[in-house]
Write a structure and sequence with these properties.
Blueprint lengths: L2 H19 L6 E6 L8 E3 L5 E8 L3 E12 L2 E3 L7 E3 L8 E8 L12 E5 L2 E7 L5 E7 L4 E3 L2 E11 L4 E6 L6 E7 L2 E6 L11 E2 L1 E7 L8 H25 L1
Antiparallel strand pairs: 1-17, 2-13, 3-12, 3-14, 4-10, 4-11, 4-13, 4-17, 5-6, 7-8, 7-12, 9-10, 13-16, 14-15
Length: 247
């Protein structure tokens, strides 16, 4: 074998070795409560408390974004006049959403401090009208990447700015285990269900958790290392022999 051919073989082996140890995985939906149709409305307003939904992961993942759908920007009922509806658009330029990820405490998030949290302006996508009273909008939060192990968790959303009328969309897809959180100086206090549970029965809400598998480096077989090292050694031996023959 010529020296140039041997170099090509070794170079190919090194490329293969690098490819095996660095795997790129595209983002996907890891958990989702999908919209189930216009027969469902919305009742979690997000502004006075944190609305929370539970989810589970079967493997370790890198979380990259969170979404929820809400009903808003339509003629919303005016409680002071039974015959009047008010158009209450959201302020898309100033809207800010607090998000948080919590350990599970069963029927509600566990503890008073979130595992991960942040505040950001969401990206909005109009999903069309779902009833005669509301417009359906998806809110996408491109959160900083963080890793979660397999297990049960809760995700919370809270509107801090730009709110006029924004109600978490209900769905028939998913369980009816939700929670409400109230923030104080001592942390967040959690309660199962909707704050006004006597008027609002348990409902599932539309949301998703998106990301990709946590980075996993494929370990090359021992033979791969042996072949690469043997090739490097052979190149060195040939080079030394050529230098000796020229002397």
């Amino acid at each position: 074998m010529k020296l140039c051919d041997l170099r090509n073989v070794v170079a190919g082996g090194l490329v293969l070795l690098v490819g095996l140890t660095s795997t790129e995985v595209s983002a996907s939906v890891l958990f989702q409560n999908q919209w189930s149709g216009p027969s469902k409305s919305g009742n979690a307003s997000f502004i006075y408390y944190i609305g929370a939904e539970n989810f589970s992961l079967t493997n370790a993942y890198s979380i990259e974004s969170l979404t929820f759908e809400a009903l808003t920007e339509g003629p919303i009922y005016n409680y002071w006049s039974s015959s009047e509806y008010l158009a209450k658009p959201i302020d898309r330029d100033s809207l800010m959403i607090d998000w948080s990820i919590w350990a599970s405490g069963g029927d509600k998030p566990s503890g008073t401090t979130a595992l991960f949290s942040g505040s950001m302006a969401p990206s909005l996508t109009d999903m069309g009208n779902c009833t005669t009273c509301y417009k359906r909008i998806e809110y996408l939060l491109d959160v900083p990447d963080f890793n979660l192990a397999a297990g049960d968790y809760w995700v919370g959303f809270h509107v801090t700015r730009g709110f006029e009328g924004l109600y978490w969309a209900q769905t028939a897809n998913g369980d009816t285990k939700t929670a409400s959180g109230y923030v104080s100086n001592s942390g967040t206090a959690w309660y199962p269900g909707h704050p006004n549970s006597s008027n609002y029965p348990p409902e599932a809400y539309v949301f998703s958790v998106r990301g990709s598998a946590a980075s996993v480096s494929s370990v090359p077989e021992p033979e791969t290392y042996t072949m690469v090292l043997a090739g490097l050694g052979l190149i060195g031996a040939i080079a030394r022999r050529r230098r000796a023959s020229r002397a």
